[in-house]
Design goal:
Blueprint: E1 4-8, H1 13-25, E2 30-33, H2 44-47, E3 57-60, E4 63-66, H3 68-78, H4 92-126, H5 132-154, H6 167-177, H7 191-204, H8 207-218
Parallel strand pairs: 1-2
Antiparallel strand pairs: 1-3, 3-4
Helix pairs in contact: 1-3, 1-6, 1-8, 4-5, 4-6
Bound molecules: glutathione.
Glutathione binds near residues 41, 54, 55, 67 and 68.
């Protein structure tokens, strides 16, 4: 089997999601750290890996791939006999449930959390106070999405797609935690989501906490102890 080269930046939420998945499943890979802040994704060399110059990306022999959802499906399918079935179940309906979230998140969780993150990040970078009206609007949208994820995906289940953790949980938790980078706590007023996040982190640690070091440091906070432990 050819060696998998994985290109990522820990400040990128889909990068963290796939890194976590590779680590927790024990899939062997060569970790290739690329700094977006230092412009390393915009070099001619990296454009050979991903011509759109985005992270994450992978190289598997002479095959290159970008787009995190396509990548995670490729990895889960390629290593299907080596990883536990629950991550991306073979059962048609269970798998479709995971895909349902992965498709939803592009214009749902990812879009609305990212809009708030980018809005505040721009202000942090220019040293200006963020436009408070716009912040409030983006926060309201983010809270609506949080509620939709909690109510319509999680419901009374342990994890987003049922009683077992899947790659949908990994993608969701990293998107939701992105805004700790600008000092927010995304689950303070949502105890059900906070409890889910703890369950997810217990299944993913110690790798999960490892991926969160940079984003918490960016927001000037410590990783909460409940997200660092493992059952
Ligand atoms: N839809 C893509 C999004 C990729 C993306 O936007 N990546 C961001 C980091 S999260 C990036 O590489 N930004 C650097 C840039 O635009 O220069 C995916 O899911 O992989």
């Amino acid at each position: 089997m050819s060696k998998l080269y994985y290109y990522y930046d820990m400040l990128s939420q889909p990068s963290r999601a796939i890194y976590t998945f590779l680590k927790v499943t024990g899939i062997p890979f060569e970790a290739c750290k690329i700094s977006i802040a230092a412009g390393e994704n915009r070099t001619a060399e990296f454009a050979e890996i991903n011509p759109r110059k985005k992270l994450p990306a992978l190289k598997d022999g002479d095959f290159n791939l970008s787009e995190s959802v396509a990548m995670v499906r490729y990895i889960a399918n390629k290593y299907r006999d080596q990883i536990a079935d629950h991550w991306y179940p073979k059962d048609l309906k269970q798998r479709a449930r995971v895909d349902e979230y992965l498709e939803y998140q592009h214009l749902g969780t990812r879009l609305h959390y990212s809009l708030l993150f980018i809005h505040e990040l721009s202000a942090m970078r220019t040293g200006q106070t963020p436009d408070t009206k716009q912040t409030a609007k983006l926060e309201t949208n983010m809270k609506k999405i949080t509620h939709i994820v909690q109510k319509t995906f999680l419901g009374d289940n342990k994890f987003l797609c049922g009683d077992e953790i899947t790659i949908a949980d990994i993608f969701a938790v990293h998107e939701i935690l992105q805004i700790v980078g600008t000092g927010h706590d995304p689950v303070t007023d949502n105890p059900k989501l906070a409890a889910w996040m703890e369950r997810v982190s217990h299944k993913l640690n110690p790798h999960f906490a490892e991926t969160l070091v940079e984003i918490y440091a960016m927001g000037g906070k410590e990783i909460p102890p409940q997200l660092k432990s493992k059952y």
